[in-house]
Recover the amino acids of this structure.
């Protein structure tokens, strides 16, 4: 159901590098799981509303007031690489 | 302290220990030291981090007793608490069982942990789990598998396997876990303890490293139902930092029901191996005979307490719950886990050519096989051309499942099922077959999709291994659910703790 090219396409969407040894097993496992979950296709769901949140809530947002945020040095403290006052990353273009 | 005294302390439930401390019969330092020593000597791989001893923490001000702000008459004063790795704890490693968060020490503490600390609980340690809570056996952890204290060749269940095994083995008086599709209830069942998933929203998710946000919920793993109620009592409440959190209509009281006169317990055919059971392929065997036998004994006990067991209720869409779950949860996970990109925290792969290459390599190196599988599954289900067939349909199935429960609760007060289809299985037995692993959640996933509270209590043994009874109630019935579980617990008289080591 899912072939090698599809696995590589989805992996690219997910920003995930796959080792050569990971591709075939993933194709097989994803196919098996998708085969199983595709059974929901047999149900008649015409006119059924989708549910994204099960408990009904209204007005649950807090007041939009400025608050103190994490100090910069604390936010940067866990970063693998820091440059000056920000996170350091490789250039977007090779 | 002599061995005899240590045994006396270990014999106390968390509620009893809290009472003994409040009455001045036990010192909190003594209690902490007993558990700290046991947690530090853990050979089941339950803990990923253990608090420093009292002397060390006094020196550097770190760890267990720092920053609790508890008053001396705080209700949980001095009772040590084990916390699943995925709860952020300030200055204490929090990796959610993943290599990609190697070395991460959060700058803040999860609301639920902070609340429990304010109630007097002290952080004993962080517990092992399946990576990002994805798994039913605790074999997907970057820290290696947890062993089941009942039989070390078997899994403790997952994903809160470290929390469950630690409580079962007496390495912690009680523990925090999280449940997305069964991750508290199933390991509680496989380890012979109590585990509860509260109503969705009852406990703040702020500071919980997210898996599937519309399903994730924190809950207690404890030795008995009274402890579960006591811990939950101090966990719940609205939190301005979590817009989905809410206030339960009643405070959680300690349970005291002795009888269940007139209480209607529904047995859904679809989740109890009945004729409408939708277990895919009989090859997997559905629910084990020994599990069903223990379940039937529990129903008899309930009848003995005056409950009315209603055998013919139906949850017609429950057989499709697992399919809907394995679309929705991975879809939400693929989005939540996009934040792990090697920029702000945790692991970063070396030698990348450019930014995209760095993202891709970091995620290749940092995520384990099951997490990759779910990210792929979720990304596929959300991708152009497949969204409506998978994600859209799964959300509609979720509506039908919630409607099924609403219909059932018009007929009965609670629904009872076995928690898991099998007792604890062998390490490695299901790692090669994702679908077989996912079937562990067959009886727990429907309640997760409906957002309703459900508890697992031990109801007997099969082949010498514990069996869990799941009781589920309507949204916001958490208090009466605990009462019902308590009455059944007393009647069942399960006295199973694995041999102490």
């Amino acid at each position: 159901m899912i072939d090698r090219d599809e696995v590589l396409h989805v992996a690219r969407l997910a920003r995930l590098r796959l080792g050569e040894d990971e591709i075939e097993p993933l194709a097989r496992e994803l196919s098996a799981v998708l085969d199983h979950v595709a059974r929901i296709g047999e149900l008649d769901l015409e006119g059924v509303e989708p549910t994204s949140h099960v408990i009904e809530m209204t007005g649950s947002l807090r007041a939009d007031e400025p608050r103190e945020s994490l100090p910069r040095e604390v936010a940067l403290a866990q970063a693998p690489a820091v440059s000056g006052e920000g996170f350091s990353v490789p250039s977007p273009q090779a | 302290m002599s061995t005899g005294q240590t045994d006396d302390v270990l014999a106390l439930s968390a509620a009893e220990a809290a009472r003994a401390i409040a009455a001045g019969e036990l010192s909190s330092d003594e209690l902490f030291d007993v558990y700290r020593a046991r947690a530090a000597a853990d050979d089941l791989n339950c803990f990923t981090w253990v608090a420093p001893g009292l002397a060390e923490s006094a020196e550097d001000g770190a760890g267990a007793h720092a920053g609790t702000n508890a008053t001396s008459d705080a209700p949980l004063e001095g009772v040590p608490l084990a916390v699943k790795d995925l709860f952020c704890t300030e200055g204490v490693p929090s990796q959610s069982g993943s290599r990609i968060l190697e070395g991460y020490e959060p700058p803040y503490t999860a609301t639920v942990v902070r609340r429990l600390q304010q109630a007097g609980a002290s952080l004993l340690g962080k517990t092992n789990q399946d990576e990002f809570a994805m798994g039913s056996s605790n074999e997907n952890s970057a820290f290696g598998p947890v062993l089941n204290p009942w039989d070390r060749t078997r899994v403790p269940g997952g994903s809160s396997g470290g929390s469950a095994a630690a409580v079962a083995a007496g390495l912690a008086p009680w523990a925090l876990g999280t449940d997305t599709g069964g991750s508290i209830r199933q390991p509680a069942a496989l380890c012979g303890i109590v585990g509860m998933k509260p109503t969705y929203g009852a406990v703040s998710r702020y500071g919980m490293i997210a898996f599937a946000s519309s399903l994730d919920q924190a809950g207690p793993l404890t030795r008995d139902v009274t402890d579960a109620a006591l811990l939950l009592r101090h966990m719940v409440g609205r939190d301005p930092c979590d817009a989905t959190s809410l206030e339960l209509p009643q405070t959680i009281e300690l349970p005291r029901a002795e009888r269940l006169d007139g209480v209607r317990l529904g047995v859904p055919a679809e989740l109890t191996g009945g004729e409408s059971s939708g277990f895919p392929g009989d090859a997997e065997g559905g629910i084990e005979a020994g599990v069903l036998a223990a379940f039937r004994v529990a129903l008899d006990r309930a009848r003995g307490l005056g409950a009315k067991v209603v055998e013919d209720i139906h949850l017609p869409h429950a057989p499709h719950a697992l399919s809907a779950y394995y679309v929705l949860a991975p879809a939400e996970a693929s989005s939540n886990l996009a934040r792990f990109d090697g920029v702000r925290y945790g692991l970063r792969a070396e030698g990348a050519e450019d930014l995209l290459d760095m993202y891709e390599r970091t995620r290749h190196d940092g995520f384990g096989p099951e997490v990759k599988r779910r990210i792929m599954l979720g990304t596929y289900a959300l991708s152009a051309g497949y969204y409506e067939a998978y994600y859209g349909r799964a959300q509609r199935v979720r509506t039908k499942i919630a409607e099924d429960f609403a219909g059932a609760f018009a007929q009965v007060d609670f629904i009872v099922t076995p928690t898991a289809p099998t007792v604890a299985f062998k390490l490695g037995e299901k790692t090669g077959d994702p679908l077989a692993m996912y079937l562990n959640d067959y009886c727990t996933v429907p309640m997760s999709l409906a957002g309703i509270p459900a508890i697992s209590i031990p109801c007997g043994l099969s082949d010498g291994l514990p069996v869990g009874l799941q009781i589920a109630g309507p949204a916001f019935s958490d208090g009466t659910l605990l009462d019902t579980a308590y009455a059944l617990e007393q009647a069942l008289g399960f006295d199973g703790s694995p041999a102490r080591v």
